[in-house]
Amino acid sequence: MASDKTLNPKNLAALGTERLAELLLGLAEGDAAIKRQLRLELAGKAGGDGAAAEIRKRLATIAKSKSFVDWHKARAFAKDIEAQRVAIMKHVAPTQPAEAVDLLWRFLEMAPSIYERCDDSNGTVGDIMDEALENLGEVAKSAKLSADKLADRVFTSVCANDYAQFDGLIEEMAEALGRDGLTLLKAKFEALAKLPPAKPVDGHRRVVAYSSRGAIHEDDFAAERQARLIRSALTEIADALGDVDGYAARFTPEEQGNPAIAADIAQRLLAVGRAEEAMAAIERAEKTHAAGRSWPDFERVRIEVLEALGRLDDAQAARWSIFARDLNADYLRTFLKRLPDFEDEEAETRAIADARGYGGFHQGLGFLVNWPALDAAAAHVFERHGELDGDHYWLLTPAADAMEQRHPLAATLMLRAMIGFALEKARVKRYGHAARHLKTCEYLAKRIEDWHGHADHDAWVTDLCQRHGRKAAFWQA
User: Fold this and answer.
1) Phi, psi (5° rounding) for residue 211?
2) Cα distance between residue 188 and residue 231, in whole Å
3) 380: buried, middle or exposed (CB in 10 Å: 19+, 13-18, 0-12)?
4) Nearest 5°: CA angle at 328, between 326 and 331?
5) How far apart are CA 255 and CA 277, in angstroms?
6) CA dist., res. 13 & res. 10, Å (int)
7) Measured between alpha carbons, how far apart are the two ends of the chain, in Å?
8) CB 416 within 8 Å of CB 441
9) For residues 232 and 223, what is the distance between their CA atoms, to the nearest angstrom?
10) Backbone φ and ψ of 118, nearest 5°
11) Could you list the pLDDT tens digit for every one of the 477 residues in the chain?
């Protein structure tokens, strides 16, 4: 049973409201953050108008401040701006959604001044901004704002997105904008695209960088940036409108030959039941895909299109080809699920054999351990132990853990590889791990009856002492 002195809501409530109020005022006397929180709570109790005014005043103060926020003040600063976001959602949004939308927008518009005066290397402020953006989209759905005014504000924000605070804004606001608002927004970006590039005011083209093609001028850089922004916005709008053709039209024929872009287009065509056109989009990028780079989304979508077209054998062949090339377990699992009864066992046996013969020893081992096929993994180690690389500790350590019960010798060989590597390369930072591996080898040795031509534990340790006996940091670890 909790003591009467334990700090919990029940015991504190027993002090009475007046005493608690006195304590809070005392605490707030030396803490500005607590004072602001108390004012917000009082304003919220009085109604959304009071809370909104208090929040608006605090946001203006934060935006105007120029002082740099040192690392030791960063947590308190983040806590302050998070308190404003929470207050908007708690005290304003439920009764005044339109006012909450405006406050959240002002909150996000502060991002440049905030990022310029604080170090957000841990991403705390960025996370708060991301949540505020989600809140904006959520509240805007119930705010019943006019489509034209909302489109204007989205357009302005997307164009002023210097600190990525408005990344994804169009997607978040799509429902609130509706088809009319999205159409207006599309027209604004299309009009912007038709404007001639801005020229330097004084006629002098300032060089901002150099590339292999020569000087990069400020006006060219700005024009390219604006072109990317417009295309990105128009593709997001096309997605929001469900306009597959509009989405595809944002890319040139050359760009549609890029496997990543082709996959995006094909996936959208497939979603609206246009499988033949999806295959045409895929085929436009086949040549580039065959050039050798990895395009995982392209391969995944291509298989989805094959299945949608009823080309099931081709889809299965593609899955097996990807597995054979990369030992991709996900594709193998899907391949096996699509097989008729009793054929999956034979195919799995063949897949395990392929993994054992795979060119990359460690990739084959990783597949066999994770599948899992531990008997095959042990055989893989015995047959190709000369290929063990002790530097692959991220693979060999969990592999040894997985196999030590049923295959102690295979586990021992992997542990020995890591110990040997650490000592041969004098990786002092790994000596502690290597020493633990050595103790595990000693434990496993008691369960190994047949060493299959490998030195037993005592002989191996004797040899280790002869070659690395002077490395006291290891032996004393």
Assistant:
1) -130, 180
2) 12
3) buried
4) 125
5) 17
6) 5
7) 46
8) yes
9) 14
10) -145, 155
11) 456 667 677 776 777 777 766 666 666 566 666 666 666 666 656 555 678 888 999 999 999 988 898 888 888 899 889 999 999 999 899 999 999 999 999 999 999 999 999 888 888 999 999 999 999 999 999 998 999 999 999 999 999 998 999 999 999 999 999 999 999 999 999 999 998 877 766 667 776 677 777 776 666 667 788 888 999 999 999 999 999 999 998 889 999 999 999 999 999 999 999 999 999 999 999 988 888 777 889 999 999 999 999 999 999 999 999 999 999 999 999 999 999 888 999 999 999 999 999 999 999 999 999 999 999 999 999 999 999 999 999 999 999 999 999 999 999 999 999 999 999 999 999 999 999 999 999 999 999 999 999 999 999 999 999 999 999 999 988
Query: Tokens 């204007």 label which residue?
Result: 152
Identify the CA nearest to 423 among candidates 455, 369, 465.
465
Q: How is the chain split into domains, by residue range?
A: 16-144, 315-356, 363-477
What the block records as the tokens of 289 is 């895909």
User: Residue 241 class from Cβ within 10 Å (0-12 exposed, 13-18 middle, 19+ buried)?
Assistant: middle
Q: Which amino acid is at 121?
A: S
Q: How far is CA 476 from CA 286, 434, 444, 469, 473, in A?
A: 59, 11, 21, 11, 5
Which residue in the block uniquely carries the two structure tokens 């054999």? Answer: 353
Q: Position 396: which residue type?
A: L
CB atoms inside a 10 Å sphere around CB 180: 13
What is the pTM assigned to this prediction? 0.72
31, two tokens: 């803490």
- Treating both helix axes as pointing N-terminal to C-terminal, what angle do 343-356 and 312-326 enclose, rounded to 10 degrees? 30
Q: The tokens of 404 are what?
A: 């030590």
